[in-house]
Amino acid sequence: MSERMKIKVTLSYLWFTPNDSRAMDTTEVSFTQVVSRGCGIDVHQKVVVATISGEGIRKKTQEYGTFTRSLTEMKERLLE
């Protein structure tokens, strides 16, 4: 990695209150880049979504199932 960058991310939170109304909050977070490549993984009950991105690679998002075979496939693709 040639130089570290300052990264700014906006996080949005949505939740339900006890009386079933929705509440939403947004927070901005800044941090110094530590790695030049990474993978974000969003885990749901029936699907896992992995996005890889970084220096020298094209950003790619792919969905996988949650059974062992699919998770093994995801692991192998991420290690390429």
Walkthrough of the structure:
The protein has one domain. It is built from 1 helix and 5 strands. It has one helix at residues 68-79; strands at residues 6-16, 22-32, 37-43, 48-54, 57-64. The strands form 2 sheets. Strands 3-4-5 form a 3-stranded antiparallel β-sheet, covered by helices on one side. The longest helix has 12 residues, at 68-79. The two termini are 19 Å apart. The mean pLDDT is 84.
Spell out the blueprint of helices and strands.
Elements: E1 6-16, E2 22-32, E3 37-43, E4 48-54, E5 57-64, H1 68-79
Antiparallel strand pairs: 1-2, 3-4, 4-5
For the structure shown, list the relevant keywords.
80 residues, alpha+beta, 3-stranded antiparallel β-sheet, 1 helix
Radius of gyration using CA atoms only: 17 Å
DSSP strand tally: 5
Specify the overall morphology: flat
Report helical residue fraction.
10-25%
Please summarize the sheet with the most strands. Answer: 3 strands, antiparallel
Q: Biggest sheet: strands side by side, in what order?
A: 3-4-5
Total separate domains? 1
Mean pLDDT over the residues: 84
Strand content: over 45%
Concise summary:
By secondary structure, the protein is an alpha+beta fold. 15% of the residues lie in helices and 55% in strands.
